[in-house]
Amino acid sequence: MGYQQKLSGVVASTGLLSLMLIGSFASAWAADYKQAPMLDEQVKAGKLPAVANRLPEKPYVETMVDGVGKYGGTLRTTILANGDQYNLTRTIANELLVRWDPQWKKVMPSLAEEFKASDDATTYTFRLRKGLKWSDGQPFTVDDIMFWYEDVFMNNALSPAKNPTFTVAGKPVKLTKIDDQTVEFKFDSPYGLFLQQLAYGQGHLPVIYPKHYLKQFHEKYNKDGIPALLKANPAAGDWVALFNSKISLSFQPPFWQNLELPTLNPWVLTVPYADSERVAATRNPYYWKVDTAGNQLPYIDNVTWAKLDDPQVMALKMTSGEFDFAFRHINNSTFKSVLFDGQKTGNYRIVDVKDLPASDATILLNLNSTDPVKRKIFQNKDFRIGLSHAINRQEIIDLVYVGQGAPAQVAAQPEHELFNERQAKQYTEFDPKRSAEILDKIMPKKDAEGFRLDETGKRFTINFMVADVFGLSYPDIMQMVQQYAKDVGIDIQIRTTDRARLNTMWAANEQDAYIWNCVGGLSDAYTDVRCYMPFQKADIFFAVRWAEWYANHNSGEEPPANIKELMAAYDKVNAAVTDDERRERTKEFLNLSADNFLNIGISRPMPKYMMVSKNLKNVVNGLPIAGNLWHPAPTLTQWYFDKPVK
Amino acid sequence: MSIMKSTILEVQDLQTVFPTRTGVFKAVDGVSFALNRGETLCVVGESGSGKSVTARSILQIVDKPGRIEGGSVLLTRADGSTTDLAKLDPRGREIRDVRGKEIAMIFQEPMSSLSPVHRIGTQIGEALRIHFGTAKQEQRERVLELLRQVEIPRPESAIDRYTFEFSGGMRQRVMIAMALACNPSVLIADEPTTALDVTTQAEILDLIKKLQQSHGMAVLFITHDMGVVAEIADEVLVMYRGKVMERGPVERIFHAPQDAYTRRLIGSVVKLEKKAEVRLARKPAPAGTLPLLDVRNLSLTFPSGLKAVDDVSLTVRPGEALGIVGESGSGKTTMGRCLLRIYDAQTGAIDYRRPDGDTVDIRTANKATLEKVRREVRMIFQDPVGSLSPRKTVGDIIAEPLKIAGMKGRELNDRVADLMQQVGLEPAWRERYPHAFSGGQRQRIGIARAIALKPRLIIADEATSALDVSLRSQMLDLMMKLQDELGLSYVFISHDMSVIRYMCDRVAVMYRGKIVEVGETDQVVNNPVHGYTRALLSAIPHPDPRNRRIHNRFRYDSVRTV
Amino acid sequence: MTDITSLPPETTVSLDLHRKDMAVAGQWRLFWLKFKKHKIALVSLVVIVFMYLVAAFADFIAPFDPNAANSRFTYAPPQGLSLMLNGSFQPHVNQLKMTLNTESMRREFTSDPTKSVSVSFFVPAQQPYYVLGFIPMQTKLFGLTNPKPGDSLYIFGADRLGRDIFSRVVHGAKISLSIGLVGVFVSLILGVTIGGISGFFGGWIDIVIQRFIELLRSIPTIPLWMGFAAAIPTSWPPLRTYFVITLIVSLIGWTSLAREVRGKFLSLRNEDFVTAARLDGMSEVGIIFHHLVPSFISHIIATLTLAIPSMILAETALSFLGIGLQPPIVSWGVLLQEAQNIRAVAQAPWLLFTPAAAIVISVLALNFLGDGLRDAADPYESVS
Amino acid sequence: MIRFIAKRLVFAIPTLFAVSIIAFIIIQLPPGDYLTTLMADWASQGGAVEAGTVAAMRDRYGLDQPIYVQYFKWITGILMRGDFGISFDFGKPVTELIWNRLGFSLLLSVLTLCFVWAIAIPIGILSAVRQYSISDYTATFLAFFFLAVPDFLMALSAMYIMSAWFGQSVGGLFSPDYVDAPWGFGKLFDFAQHVWLPVVVIGLGSLAALVRIMRANLLDELSKPYVTTARAKGMSELELLLRYPVRLALNPLISTLGWILPAVISGEIIVSVVMSLPTTGPLLLRSLLAQDMYLAGSLILLISVLTIIGTLISDILLAITDPRIRLQ
Question: For residue C54, is it within any domain?
């Protein structure tokens, strides 16, 4: 239902933008720029420059969902008390050189008003908006990017390993400053996916390091002053620790604890994510976006997060109207019906969120298992097909997803250009008879309890690791799968665990099998193919040794020919320069992946939801969100309260 | 003055009952008596006679669920007004005004009868505050005066101390001071000296007498000790199972008792005033026999530094009963236990002569030897309850040493039956548990266990002190009968000189861990040499009102100087 | 969770030991006679025996497999079981009518009093099973007379997967009640051994052990449990995990038991009847088993009984923290943990109240029972 | 008195050391370390963690050193500089994170203790004085009932009831308006409005024990002879009850502080998690799960220290109230 809805308005205007574009058509309004009333006083008092001087020459003009909004109000939302800094990042901090359009179809200008890719997909040039300013009023220029590159990224003390977004085939990018506004990224080999990667959250690295503030903590710039700073900050042992305590990747805590750190975000912290029972942020007077009427964004003055330890309390407070917006931790099926009932008392509505991975629940058998018997069986595609047919997907959907969804394998979603029906539908029929026939060929012998025996004559048992994460009811699903597998003679033992423990096992390649969600349902199918082939090591671990080999042929284990063929197909995707070529190469790659049938999916995912106050306008319904697509931050600046707030 | 006028408290047909699951237990059943001004009335009786409940009924402070069911308690004041205390609400204002002000009371256990966490000054002064609302400073003055009256040394510092910082006698003085606070006209003393040593008892009795005279109080004195009665009473009330058996002047009760129970009671007390008759008939032990037990220079110091046994030497001859007498804390029990290596003495020797003539030093004997010796030297304990496992039948208890010695089957059964008969128990009771027996019977079980292995020496530690006086002589007679039958020797430890005099050939007097005097019983009793022995003997109340002597007792001064 | 493993003793009902019939009454008979006077404890004993019987015969009593899901009946409310229909004995429940609300993502149920579904006792089981693990059975205590699709029997409602809460609670009793027993057994061994050693040998051994116990008691239990529970390898099968969790839970129990045993040892060691036995030539081992153990075994039973409820509660606390037993094992803690959310509290309170009631009833009953046992533990006190 | 306290203090030192070792072992028990948690977190945000970064961090945090070296570093830091190490998770020194929360934990525990005592003592007295009456049975039953309800269950239910039925704002210790406000009358009032619910929930669980102790002690004391003595003085029953047996029955109650405190703290941890209170509970839970070892270890250590101090205080209180202990 919801995911099919078109995004009104936005589509039309963004569709016009071409890859090579684009400046702004806003300069004509320069004289008419308006600011939030809360800033008037400061401007009058001379503490703040006039709005036109705070904005860049050509501000980014945000396209509105409902229309031009009103200033004012505090957005009350919530955050887990500990370890939930991503929530802050995803809500108010995702300003990048380039960005995805709100429907996640195209890469568009953002801080860079223009960008260009070379024909061999190795060199990328970006021109920054002129007059961009950090939240403390200092200019943001290419020098800041070069500071990141030369003194952070290439500094082996600060970056002992290089972020893969900025490396290709193990070689880091080379940056060259062309002028104050222009910078060039050059790779040794083709990297056609770089712009896409740069538009995801992980691409924020070059634009979060304000040189004017950070250089005092850097050995290169302030060697003499550092001992005094260290003395004032005894927790840091050396300048590296000191530097890291002032800034970090935005998903690490120091970023959200340092009130002094200048940013390019729409709101700046006033109460850090630390000891207090809340976190608060207020508008950045130097924010560089305006609405179509020339009003400087954001509309909402302040954002506050109540720190809570238990999602149950979040839900309770949502339904009693203590929040205007809530999303993470309570937008799963457990809370849906309570939150649905609470709309009236809580004065909020429920809005669709297109958090559509390739599969919400995927059975990942360890093809590189250290147990030779299990490895052989898991690597047998027929075994995977047999197991897939044993699963009554419709029953799982009825039970766990209240009938919402359809049986599907790991695949791009039907609405996406990369959708492959065969990949999505193959082997999804519930057919225990056929399953048993297939398995009979692999493991014909059974013991007294009807469980199949492996070639050594022992009962073939899969120890399944299950973590209760994301509110996706993995334990419930696995309990059902266990039953289905039993019916065809496969013994599954469920081992409940938590995420960190799973990570330990993955790192050691100790797991037989586990259940997880698979990214790559929408446009991330281009860049994040970890479920479609043995890829990088993050969350998805079904063939770690092959993935290691793919990253570096001197490590890991050389995969069989069919897997190598799959990897080669993906290399072609990365080498593609044009959108069309990339799409075709990816389709070929996904087709090949479907042939290999590496993992077993359960159901097509359904949209998730978020709660927003009935008073909030300009809220995108059906906003796409993914692990590396850090929404709703980029759209939050246009939210506004249409009724006066207290 | 007429008799009516001098009566201050008249109890008529008092009935106090305790409802139980099975019915109503009449603790006090129709008791009547009159207490005259300035006189002392002793209520005497054995345990369970209802004497304490009678005393408490007067002030309506009987413990729950007891209650007064009938009768009257008529209090006549100096101004002639009277109140029937039994009719008052036990929680009401009127009876509270009487308590502590007109009628005061002191109790048996001064330690537990005083609050451990309140200063004694506060506790004494409290009655003043309750009844007269006396101001703090004035209270303190009055308390100091009271402390002086009860002869507590250094009253200025004593007033701010706690009960546990005082000795037993001093605590009882505190109790008395408390009772005297409001100048009551009646003092009820509920076994006030039972928990005290004889010398201390004598002092407290003295004090009460003195204060009674100076305050003109009537005293109702509850006791089980006929000696005390003879020493202090003007009138006596003999109680038995809640009823009054006899009532009259002390002279008549002791010398012309009318009631059979009274006669029996007096008889058993008087009996213990002299040497047992069996012993009179006995031939004296042949002189020159080698001692059965020869203890030399035995010392035991506890980790706390207390010298419980200090250089003790004594001998026990075959067939002889050696008495060890001493007050609490004299180390007599510890010494007795050292003899069987229950405690390990640090220095000295305990030479025990085995039947084959070998001598064994029990103090240093090895395990196997000790085991043998312990079959020949046995022990009888003071507490008839604690010394018998409640979870075993009487038969099992008596059979235990026999079983360990290897006896079994029919032989064992027969032997147990014999033993039971020997100590005066029905062999048919062997399946019963100790809880089904009275104190005296239990002590017989303990004796049967002790003699099961045909021992040669029995160490009896206060074997009769937990028993009522009428049972005491029976038990002693039994022990002496067994002595003759089995050729036993005894080490008889007791605080009670009369039982020693009754049963022992020789006596050793212990004082602060040392033996201060040893000798033939007759000689020690009649001609004590050591000062302490003299003090001890002279403090013993004599059950003859015609011969009141503890007021003229000998006081051993080193008590304070040592 | 709570550390309170032992409550102070109830003051006493005493026996009249001088009654004639008591003369040959041994320890256990007196124990029983005294215990009988404690009416609440007596009732609690009946309740506890009943609970343990339910646990033992869970497979027979529970009409359904505790893990059998039914997609038609997720969050189905309790169906009141009525015994009479039209004036005659006809046990039945009313049929549930289900509508799917896709907007709020839930199934909505209405009871239809016009359509009754017949329920009978001793119905054939869907598949043969074993009671107590070895008695083959074909019959269930009760169930639907003629199960048809669309009929349901949820006397205490259904959970999010349409599983029968009644069956789950009954099956949960097996784990939860046995955790108490096994845990108590472990505590017993630890407590009696260590406490016995401490009390019997005294001296520096006693001091070291007492310090150690004090130390353990000063560490709040939650982090202690979490550390241990998190250390359990995930590859372990559920049964082993269960035993280790029991061990962890009993960590709290043994210290108080050890103290109790030590105290008893210390006080009994100097009792005259023990001295008498020693003088009789009885060996130390003989004294321990003939005199000491019989003297405090009743106290131990009482203490153990009082320790069971705290173990049951500890299991629920571990489950709450997500480090206890895990599904598919069904325990009361697991059930509570599954119901520990706003959805259950607000819209399906039966998920919460049914296991909570089971826990509260058994904990209450065990506490009262333990109270009565402790009261009766020393039937001789009125004598001494 | 001073000697007594000094002796207790000296006794506490080896206990503290042992606690620090146990705390350190507890946090080392689970497999993996903080970096595995970090990797999992990064992965969920679409990032992959390069092996080099992990190795560098492990080296930086000293996680690759043997456990006794780590322990030694940690404990010497605490003893020498009051430095409890850094929290990996927060990237901050542990000392900056915990004092505030420890303060609230302590406050909550003390309030809870006060609450429990304030209701347990009168109920205990009533129960003892009216032994075997309806009120005795009711009190006993209720106390046991609250003992039997798991505290997390009680916390959630109470919160739901207060929120849904009475419209009270639940969770936390302050309303948003007062979170960062300076202490004042308004904030205090707001605090009181929030704090009573957790205090009641935590307290009720420990109620049973205290009521039973009070009742048993008092019954014990009521039968003591000094009660009769006081009665014989003519004291009124109420004054007598309060002045003597109740006063004495309180002594053993004071000594329960030592073991009721760990129970209250454990309860506080769980209830704080459910009710989102800014106490050590949620922080400890999170740090244990994230294997943020110095934070977790320091919290366990400090909570245990609080318990030990609590025991010490109870010993001292007991010595003050009971001259037998003080003077012997």
Answer: no
Q: Indicate contact of B with A: 3+ CB pairs under 8 A.
A: no
Average pLDDT over residues A111-116: 92
Hey, of C342, C345, C347, C351, which one would you mutate to test binding to chain A, going by the most A CBs within 10 A of its CB? C342
Longest dimension (CA), chain B: 81
SS3 A176: strand
pLDDT digits (tens, 9 = 90+) for C84-104: 777 788 888 888 888 878 777
Residue C365: which CATH number? 1.10.3720.10
pLDDT at residue A364 in the model: 94
| Residue A595: both structure tokens together | 């042939």
**Does residue C29 form part of some domain?**
no
Q: CB pairs under 8 A, 24+ apart, for B121-128?
A: B121/B159, B121/B160, B123/B174, B123/B178, B124/B159, B124/B174, B124/B177, B124/B178, B124/B181, B125/B181, B126/B178, B126/D230, B126/D233, B126/D235, B127/B100, B127/B101, B127/B178, B127/B181, B127/B182, B127/D233, B127/D234, B128/B181, B128/B182
Instruction: Match 């088993």 to its residue by tokens.
Output: C289
Chain A nearest C-alpha distance from D182 (Å): 12
pLDDT of res. A31? 56
Q: For B273, how many CA atoms within 13 A lie in the half-sphere containing its CB?
A: 13
Q: Which other chains touch chain D, taking contact as 3+ CB pairs less than 8 Å apart?
A: A, B, C
Quick check: D227 contacting C, CB < 8 Å? no
CATH topology for the D97-327 domain: MetI-like fold (1.10.3720)
Q: pLDDT (tens digit, 9 = 90+) per residue, C205-246? A: 888 888 888 787 777 777 777 777 777 776 677 778 778 888
Is residue C279 domain-shared with residue C191, that is, in the same domain? yes
- Alpha carbon A415 to its chain centroid, in Å, reads 19
Structure tokens at A557: 């284990």
Report how far residue B225's alpha carbon sits from residue B196's, in angstroms, rounded to the nearest whole number. 12
pLDDT at B328: 82
Best to test chain C binding among A309, A402, A483 (most C CBs inside 10 Å)? A402
Task: State pTM to two decimals.
Answer: 0.81
> For residue B389, which residues of chain C lie inside 8 Å, CB to CB?
273, 277, 291, 294-295
Q: Is B105 on the interface with D (CB under 8 A)?
A: yes
Asked if the Cβ–Cβ distance from D233 to B112 is below 8 Å, we say no
Which chain A residue is nearest to residue D287, measuring alpha carbons?
A: A82
Check C273 against B22: CB less than 8 A apart: no
Q: Which residue in A337, A463, A475 is closest to C105 by CB distance?
A: A337
Mean pLDDT of the B283-292 span: 74
Report domain extents, chain D. Answer: 19-83, 97-327
Q: What is the CATH number of domain B290-542?
A: 3.40.50.300
Judging contacts by C-beta atoms under 8 Å, the chain A residues touching residue C236 are: 495
User: Which of C30, C276, C380 is facing B449, going by the closest CB pair?
Assistant: C276
- Please give the angle made by the CA atoms of A242, A245 and A250, to the nearest 5 degrees: 140
Protein fold of B3-102+184-271: Rossmann fold (3.40.50)
Assess whether pLDDT exceeds 60 at residue A289.
Answer: yes
Number of helical H runs and strand E runs in chain B? 23, 20
Query: Which residue intervals of B321-466 are DSSP H helices?
Result: 332-339, 367-376, 394-404, 409-422, 439-451
| pLDDT attached to residue D50 | 66
Domain boundaries, chain B: 3-102+184-271, 112-182, 290-542
Contact call for B100 and D234, based on CB within 8 A: yes
Distance CA D279, CA D105 (A): 5
What's the mean pLDDT when you consider all of chain A?
87
Task: Flag whether C294 is in a domain.
Answer: yes
Domain assignment present for residue C324? The answer is: yes
Domain that holds residue C206: 168-376
C174 and C301 co-located in one domain? yes
Could you tell me if A172 lies within 8 Å of chain D, comparing CB atoms?
Answer: no
